[in-house]
Amino acid sequence: MSNDVRSRMRGYIRQRLDMKGDTSPLRDDDLLFSSGRLDSLDAVEIVMTIEIDHGINFADINFDLTRLDSIDAIADLIERHAVSV
C-alpha cells in the first residue's frame, strides 16, 4: 500500500504545485508548507482528499500541519490512520 499511496499523493501534490507555477523538482522529503510551496488552501484540499480517499476523519486524530509537510509525512499519516472505505 505504501508505494501506491505515496505515488498517488506525489501526483496530487505535483498537480497543486504546477497550478502555482512551481515546477521545481519534488522529492518525498521536501517540505511543502513550512517552505511556502503550498498554503492553507492547499492544506484544506489535501485534507479533504485524504478524508474521502482513505476514510480518515481529521477531527479524530491529533492533527497539526506538520503531518502534511512532506509526501513522506502524508504517506505515514495515511498508513497509520486509514480505514477501509
Task: Kindly list the characteristics that best describe this protein.
Acyl carrier protein; ACP-like_sf; PP-bd_ACP; 85 residues; mainly alpha
| Helix content percent band | 40-55%
Q: What structural class should be given to the helix and strand makeup?
A: mainly alpha
State the shape: globular
Uncertain spans: none
Radius of gyration, CA atoms, in whole angstroms: 12 Å
Quote the beta fraction.
under 5%
Distance between the termini: 14 Å
Pfam family, one: PP-binding
Domain Carrier: 3-82
Organism: Bradyrhizobium guangzhouense
InterPro entries: ACP-like_sf, PP-bd_ACP
Tell me about this structure.
The chain is mainly α. Helix content is 52%, strand content 0%. The protein contains 3 helices and no strands. It has helices at residues 2-19, 40-54, 71-81. α1 crosses α3. The radius of gyration is 12 Å and the shape is globular.
Short recap of the structure:
The chain has 85 residues and is mainly alpha-helical.
List the helices and strands and how they pair.
Elements: H1 2-19, H2 40-54, H3 71-81
